[in-house]
Design a protein that fits this description.
The chain is of the alpha+beta class and 188 residues long. It has five helices and 13 strands. The mean pLDDT is 95.
Length: 188
């Protein structure tokens, strides 16, 4: 691609290149966007979330997937990599490569200074268009605080917050609760 003007890339071209790439990129409307690296704190929180969810969901119909699981948003055509994904029931995958999920139940983004505005805004709009999505969490790195958006109806989402290390985030879509003390272990 030329550095002077971005070239249009087809979804097929993006997926072909992405499957060979050493770093991850998002895709939307013919454009490819490199994803920034993550801080130690960000990674600690993600690991704690994956471990807590994995333990809570063991033996059930839901499974937790780390940030290497690509997600396609069917309504908008966006491809992205949420920090944590939970899928309940049979995973629906885009193609025979089995590396692009279509039907998440819960998505989690750990906020960083460089991505917070996007995660709260445009990316959240894309996520809300996913018919299977029931909950979306925004997890702060700056303090023990989690914002939980739960689908109430097709176009209505309810916000609740869990704050402080004594807080607990209730995840009704997957039938579990996670204490913030565990999510923020070794962070605060």
């Amino acid at each position: 691609m030329s550095s002077s003007a971005p070239s249009w890339v087809s979804p097929e071209q993006y997926l072909e290149a992405e499957r060979r790439a050493e770093t991850k990129s998002e895709y939307f409307a013919g454009q490819v966007f490199p994803m920034p690296g993550a801080s130690l704190r960000h990674n600690q929180i993600v690991v704690n979330l994956v471990a807590g969810l994995h333990a809570a969901l063991a033996g059930g119909e839901c499974q937790v997937l780390p940030s290497d699981m690509r997600l396609k948003i069917p309504a908008t055509g966006m491809y992205t990599y949420p920090d944590v994904t939970v899928v309940c029931g049979e995973p629906q995958l885009e193609d025979a490569h089995f590396d692009t999920l279509l039907n998440p139940t819960l998505l989690i983004e750990v906020l960083s200074e460089s991505t917070e505005r996007y995660d709260r805004g445009r990316k959240a709009e894309h996520y809300r268009s996913i018919a299977s999505l029931q909950e979306y969490l925004l997890v702060s790195q700056q303090e023990p605080r989690i914002e939980r958006y739960r689908r109430h109806s097709a176009h209505e989402w309810l916000l609740s917050e869990a704050i402080g290390t004594d807080g607990v985030v209730e995840l009704s879509s997957i039938g579990c609760a996670l204490p913030l003390r565990g999510i923020y272990g070794r962070v605060f």
